[in-house]
Amino acid sequence: MVVQHQRPEQFVDAQAELRILPVAGIPEVHPGDDLPGLITKAAQDSGTGIQQLDVLVIAQKVVSKAEGCLVSLASVEPSVFARTWAEQWGKDPRHVEVVLREAARIVRMGPGILIAETKHGFVCANAGVDASNVAGEEMLCLLPPDPDASAARIVDGIRERLGAQVGVIISDTFGRAWRESHTNIAIGVAGMAPIRDYVGLSDPYGYELRVTTIADADELAGAAELVMGKIAKVPVAIVRGFQFTPAEGSARQLVRAPERDLFR
Amino acid sequence: MVVQHQRPEQFVDAQAELRILPVAGIPEVHPGDDLPGLITKAAQDSGTGIQQLDVLVIAQKVVSKAEGCLVSLASVEPSVFARTWAEQWGKDPRHVEVVLREAARIVRMGPGILIAETKHGFVCANAGVDASNVAGEEMLCLLPPDPDASAARIVDGIRERLGAQVGVIISDTFGRAWRESHTNIAIGVAGMAPIRDYVGLSDPYGYELRVTTIADADELAGAAELVMGKIAKVPVAIVRGFQFTPAEGSARQLVRAPERDLFR
User: Fold this and answer.
1) What predicted TM-score, i.e. pTM, was given to this entire model?
2) DSSP H or E run through B68
3) Which residues of B touch A179 (CB under 8 A)?
4) Which of A73, A181, A201 to mutate to test the interface with B (most CBs of B within 10 A)?
5) How far is A132 from B206, CA to CA, in rounded Å?
6) CB B230 to CB A242 under 8 A?
7) Does B20 contact A17 at a Cβ distance shorter than 8 Å?
8) Do the first three CATH levels of A19-64+145-256 and A70-141 match, i.e. the same topology?
9) CATH class name, domain B70-141
10) Predicted confidence pLDDT, tens digits, chain A (264 residues)
11) What is the ipTM of this complex?
12) pLDDT in tens, B142-190
């Protein structure tokens, strides 16, 4: 059941009404915690519940915390390069060192800005290393090593608990080229295809769409961010009413291969 | 009442439930048509209506059609450069010529791919020139010359008709660096701030957010795309329940200045 993209027989072009529902009441997440269990309980307690074919959008940070993807700055010995660059821009050299360790490649270094390609192939600031919304001083949060696998485990965990087939998107807040500000995008996907593929279909005027695909998973991640925010400790949202065909799928499909990328 | 970004006293960190409602029944749009009138009627006929503080997301194409931003290929005499490149990649030289006329600058030329900066500062494929969802053979659709002004006229038009204050986002489907596929983003905004600004606020753990801003307008445009699609002729969606403070705002605020852009 490997579906690279959603094709016409599987996707709904224009969805009916969607509801974007915040899931409040998830407690502080610690390494080893049962995230599907915490999400199920919070959704039930908040009255939202989880229904068949809901899409669960989950902030990367709680996934990383549950998986123990945390580093204490006190444990980090910075390299000469990390010290040099950190000193130049008034940064903590241990933080820079963790960023460099998470990076597969530096894509750009600007004034105090480090854009890196992560081991997953994501291009983002600081290789996804972040100190916000983490308990404890001097703790950094890293991206999960395999966010698609993390998402798949949550799909399975929800099915085991509730018998419901859901899509799961793990989201993070990334900047973009050319545009100010940030949006949430998908870094992990399971249970659904991340891309809706119109190539070869015709529009209502008979014009053949030759390149149009839509990154459903990224649009769903952004929509969910609106109810999650950055301060309110709402790390999960449910998108209800999004019609999709359960399928294998992954956020890897959203990573442009370097040889196809004019901006890497 | 110029608000660059939404600041804490004006924005809601994590929204309550959002509804994303498609507005079906908008007829084919022609140059000179009264778009606020067509949208109001379709929203009323579909039972959705338009309410105070709804956000209307409107596909660029119907805005461009109403404003007559259409070019017939028959009227276009291609330049030598357009002919050369078109021949190399099997494209229509008149189409390439229109793209070049719409471009302020070419950002990248890849194999059959032309990424341009538009006169508005948007970076996108083919300077936003598109042949899909346009009536008539050999017609191209251009971006509106000032999409923020287009959005502001629609805000005014809705207020005049219904007395309702709404936010308006004009959206288009753009590719991205580093990631496959496309998402809808905001090319015009009015009636609301496009960006939610957390800089200087603290997260629940006391960590000061130093760079976090969220492009609400882009996330809303992407959310709305999910119910608009590409084939079903649903060019308008309403986001209901998004709490915002009416404000001047523009999509220009989302354009990164070239001197701040590491990827242009």
Assistant:
1) 0.96
2) none
3) 185, 215, 218, 254-256
4) A181
5) 9
6) no
7) yes
8) no
9) alpha beta
10) 344 566 666 788 888 999 999 999 999 999 999 999 999 999 999 999 999 999 999 999 999 999 999 999 999 999 999 999 999 999 999 999 999 999 999 999 999 999 999 999 999 999 999 999 998 889 999 999 999 999 999 999 999 999 999 999 999 999 999 999 999 999 999 999 999 999 999 999 999 998 889 999 999 999 999 999 888 889 999 999 999 999 999 999 999 999 999 998
11) 0.96
12) 999 999 999 999 999 999 999 999 999 999 999 999 999 999 999 999 9
- Cβ-in-10-Å burial (0-12, 13-18, 19+) of B90 comes to exposed
Which residues 6+ apart lie within 8 Å of A16 measured at CB? A241, A243, B22, B227
Q: Enumerate the domain spans of chain A.
A: 19-64+145-256, 70-141
Choose which CATH entry (3.30.70.20, 3.10.129.10, 3.90.1570.10, 3.30.1330.100) describes domain A19-64+145-256.
3.30.1330.100
The two tokens of residue A117 are: 């390609």
Asked whether the beta carbons of B179 and A122 are under 8 A apart, the reply is no
Q: Measure CB to CB from residue B14 to each of A183, A227, A264 and give the nearest one.
A: A227
Cα A61 from chain centroid?
A: 9
Smallest Cβ–Cβ distance between B110 and the set A15, A225, A262 belongs to A262
Would you state the structure tokens that stand for residue B227, as one six-digit string? 């119910």
- B interface mutation test: which of A201, A226, A259 has the most B CBs within 10 A? A226
Element (H, E) at B249: none
* CATH level 2 (architecture), domain B19-68+145-256: 2-Layer Sandwich (3.30)
B222: closest chain A residue by CA: A219
Yes or no, beta carbons of A115 and B254 under 8 Å apart: no
Q: Is A209 close to B227, i.e. CB distance below 8 A? A: no
Q: How far apart are CA A48 and CA A40, in angstroms?
A: 10
| Min distance A256 CA to chain B CA atoms (Å) | 5
Identify residue A8 by its one-letter amino acid code: P
**Which two structure tokens, joined as six digits, stand for A132?**
């916000």
Q: List, in sequence order, every beta strand (DSSP E) within B178-243.
A: 182-190, 196-197, 213-214, 236-240
